[in-house]
Write a structure and sequence with these properties.
Layout: H1 2-20, H2 31-35, E1 49-50, E2 70-71, H3 74-80, E3 94-102, E4 108-115, E5 120-127, E6 133-140, E7 144-147, E8 157-168, E9 171-184, E10 189-190, E11 195-205, E12 211-222, H4 227-238, H5 247-262, H6 272-282, H7 284-293, H8 302-308, H9 315-320, H10 325-338
Antiparallel strand pairs: 1-8, 2-3, 3-4, 4-5, 5-6, 7-8, 8-9, 9-10, 9-11, 11-12
Helix pairs in contact: 4-5, 6-7, 6-8, 7-10
């Protein structure tokens, strides 16, 4: 009988330990979250894929409460999100920590959902063991649907843009599918795509915790792709980039070759100048420093910078804050002669 009771106790202990294994994750790297009152259990660990439901078509009744994760309180929001700055949603309203994962080198990758009544963003941020923010990228809606002719409420031809993230070690990849189709708004149904294009945008999270953009690559196409529409949204995705990594500027400079080869110079709806302006606003010091270091023909961003940033009243203030005298003088001269 004694052996029987011992066996029963052993089984109970094993079951108890098994149950505990599905509880809090024992990882010292997540201590800063625990100190903020956020318990990292298995449910809060990011898997290899991060996908969100389509809030525009597939599930129009979706609310933040339908998503799984940890709702941030004011203290947690101030500690984790606010340090990312003005490129991120600054309304405390609806913030959800979707999950975290260890990406090596003592770095934690966290994914957030920031939602409102009109749309949402997915924010990826990196932290050191003390909870200091290292870098962040801001991916606007992973699912978007809108009319081809925005000013015509009867237009049933729509563009769709879908996406999700995958993670593998220190790599993060944004997968995108864009297409055009016919939309039955009354029944919330989409037709088969008239054309479709898929592309991947890859990042490596380096030892500093920065998202180093590796570039885009088209992985599949079907039908006659609208080159202008496709490039509009590839440019949009190019803004999903590091707040700090200086190599971003080189990547954008190379990307401008694709823009130049696609757009007719007389095509007035080229959005690239305004995307370049947003790149400037993301980190003015990085942007202006790169511009000052590239004063020759290899600088292909300058024409777009002149168009997109010529009305910024704080541009001269940003230039005046540059430490290098020669760079500051050149940029000031450029501003006075060209803007």
């Amino acid at each position: 009988m004694c052996n029987k009771y011992i066996l029963i106790l052993a089984l109970a202990l094993a079951l108890s330990l098994g149950a505990c294994s599905h509880g809090k994750v024992d990882n010292l790297q997540f201590t800063f979250l625990d100190e903020l009152g956020i318990t990292v259990d298995e449910k809060l660990l990011l898997g290899d894929t991060l996908a969100l439901p389509d809030v525009y078509c597939g599930d129009p009744g979706q609310t933040l409460d339908d998503l799984k994760g940890h709702h941030l309180d004011k203290e947690q929001y101030a500690a984790l999100v606010v340090p990312a700055g003005r490129n991120f949603v600054d309304d405390m309203g609806n913030w959800l920590l979707l999950g975290v994962r260890d990406v090596g080198s003592g770095i934690t990758l966290a994914a957030f959902y920031a939602g409102s009544g009109t749309g949402y963003c997915v924010e990826l941020m990196t932290y050191d063991k003390r909870g200091n923010l290292l870098d962040a990228i801001n991916a606007r809606e992973l699912h978007v649907l809108w009319r081809v002719r925005m000013d015509d409420a009867s237009c049933d031809t729509v563009f769709t843009l879908d996406g999700y993230f995958t993670f593998n070690g220190s790599r993060a990849t944004l997968h995108r599918t864009m297409g055009r189709c016919i939309m039955d708004f009354d029944r919330d149904l989409k037709s088969a795509p008239q054309w479709q294009q898929q592309w991947d945008q890859e990042y490596v999270i380096d030892a500093k915790g920065q998202f180093v953009l590796q570039g885009q690559r088209v992985v599949a196409e079907a039908g006659q792709v609208d080159a202008y529409a496709s490039l509009d949204f590839k440019s949009w995705d190019m803004l999903v980039c590091s707040l700090h990594d200086p190599a971003v500027m080189d990547t954008w400079n190379e990307y401008s070759l694709l823009v130049n080869s696609t757009y007719d110079p007389d095509y007035k709806y080229n959005p690239f100048p305004w995307h370049v302006e947003r790149l400037y606003l993301m980190n003015p010091k990085r942007f202006l420093g790169w511009m000052a270091a590239h004063r020759g023909s290899d600088n292909r961003l300058l024409p777009y910078f002149r168009v997109g940033c010529n009305k910024r009243p704080d541009l001269l203030k940003e230039i005046a804050a540059i430490d290098d005298d020669n760079a500051r003088r050149w940029l000031t001269s450029l501003f006075n002669s060209s803007f």
